[in-house]
Design brief:
- By secondary structure, this protein is mainly alpha-helical.
- The chain is built from eight helices and two strands; from the N terminus they run E-E-H-H-H-H-H-H-H-H.
- The chain has a two-stranded antiparallel ribbon with strand order 1-2.
- Helix 1 runs antiparallel to helix 4 and helix 4 packs antiparallel against helix 5.
- It is globular and about 55 Å long.
- The N and C termini lie far apart (59 Å).
């Protein structure tokens, strides 16, 4: 059996190639939300560009909020080592999905910067419609891939909204990976793409405001 690993959302999932061998976690089929989230994202972007009416009282707080989301994503990727154990350090101590949370805060900030409240409400609804099932599916992949360690982590750390972690189980303390933040991980995980995209969106909104 030949195995490969891929980063799936906030985590690493395991895929089985069509070669005979021992059983191990199998890549699940994509959910409907996983299939449609890219086209839905483009559709929302088109609506946003057409209907947004940015003004300074909305632009400044929105960009500030979005910057916080970007910082959260950078913090998370600085602790995320692909294909090397279950990450539980940094923001992963407080939420199992800090990358999704950072994306949510970034998107909400950009939506608010557009100056049209209903666009921000639409973003929130679309985000949870698209990503709540994905996070639940990836939770099952964690359980398949990491067994007792993942179960202990899921029990002690909230899915999305951050909270102080309850006392972790002994197997979580021993068998998972605590890492220091490293900028080279941020670069390796290509988080600069999110930063570039955020700056471009902020610039587009600023130009439209003129």
């Amino acid at each position: 059996m030949v195995w490969s690993q891929r980063l799936h959302g906030d985590r690493t999932s395991f895929c089985r190639s069509p070669v005979s061998g021992p059983r191990f976690p199998i890549c699940p089929l994509m959910t409907i939300q996983q299939r449609i989230r890219v086209p839905v994202g483009f559709a929302y972007a088109a609506l946003f560009l057409y209907f947004s009416r940015p003004a300074l009282p909305w632009f400044l707080p929105g960009i500030a909020l979005g910057s916080l989301g970007l910082c959260l994503r950078i913090w998370a990727t600085g602790h995320l080592e692909k294909w090397s154990g279950l990450a539980v350090s940094g923001p992963y101590r407080y939420t199992r999905n800090p990358l999704y949370l950072g994306s949510f805060v970034m998107g909400l900030g950009i939506s608010l910067a557009g100056g049209v409240p209903w666009l921000a409400l639409l973003f929130v609804g679309l985000f949870f419609f698209l990503y709540q099932p994905v996070m639940r599916r990836e939770e099952q992949e964690l359980l398949q891939a990491y067994g007792p360690q993942a179960r202990a982590y899921l029990k002690s750390t909230p899915l999305f909204w951050p909270m102080p972690r309850r006392s972790p189980a002994p197997e979580l303390q021993i068998d998972t990976v605590n890492r220091a933040f490293l900028w080279k991980r941020v670069v390796r995980n290509r988080e600069y793409n999110a930063a570039i995209g955020f700056v471009i969106l902020a610039a587009v909104i600023f130009v439209k405001m003129q």
